[in-house]
Please model this.
Amino acid sequence: MKASAINVGTSAVPVYKLQLTGAETGAANSFTVAYTKDDNGTPAQAALGLTTTTAASDASLTLFGGTAAQATVTSASNVFTGLATGLDVTVSTVTAADAADVKLTVARDTSNAKSMASALVSNLNVVLSEISSRSAATNGTAADGTKILKGGLFAGDSSIRQLRQDLLEKASLPVDGVSPSTIGMVINKDGTFTFDDALFSSALADDPAKVQSIVSGVAERLAATATTASNATNGTLTLSVQAQQGMVKDLDQRIADWDDRLAVRRQSLTRIYSNLEVSLSNLQAQSTWLSGQLASLTSSTSSN
Model:
């Protein structure tokens, strides 16, 4: 139960009344207010002027009215759960006892099942299309200008090839002996899938449970395949990415090692070159001295 102060006066001259409201609906959740008499023996409830505005009650439905099978069903709320197998009914209007009967027509809602199956096929085609487009070879030009054929990003990747094969297999294999193509999930010659709306609707009308079982079975198998490929610890794609990252890291390390070796080699060659320059300078000095000596000998011989 909860209490609220309600202003029944004006904003300038407020007059408040206390409103007591049950927290739960239904006749079983009605409540009473205990009170004591005042000093004059007058019941305090009368002095306070407590009034019941809405009595706690159950909602009720009369089924099969006017027949020998007539029955009244009650509910603590306006929702009648399980009124029929798989059917809940919510009432919102109070009708008079002599009002015309209300007839309910219950039909299966196929839109959700159809939407789920169609979306499953569409999403599967998106993944397969991405794999195909990124695996296809393209024309390119080499450094010398000749035309070459370049492999796609996924070309030669065994993990991607296996994933594509698994997706095609899991989406087309029978579920409990029934092929998904019989309910409109059809595999094409090019490795894509088509959702046949008319065939799916017909199969759903004939045997809803079978269609639900097939769609759920295909969805579960595809989900398991996706988990196997993308698991953060041991997924096939995860391991493939880790292997490629390891290769890149190894190549980076090798390049860094070669950079170090080349730096050392450069220092060695620079030192050798410097030594050669010193030696060459010394040889040039000696050559100049010898030339001078030879010139002096020649002059002396000519004088004699």
User: Anything to note?
Assistant: The chain has a mean pLDDT of 85. The two ends are 145 Å apart (CA to CA). Helices lie at 44-48, 111-135, 158-172, 197-206, 208-230, 236-303. Residues 111-231 form one domain.
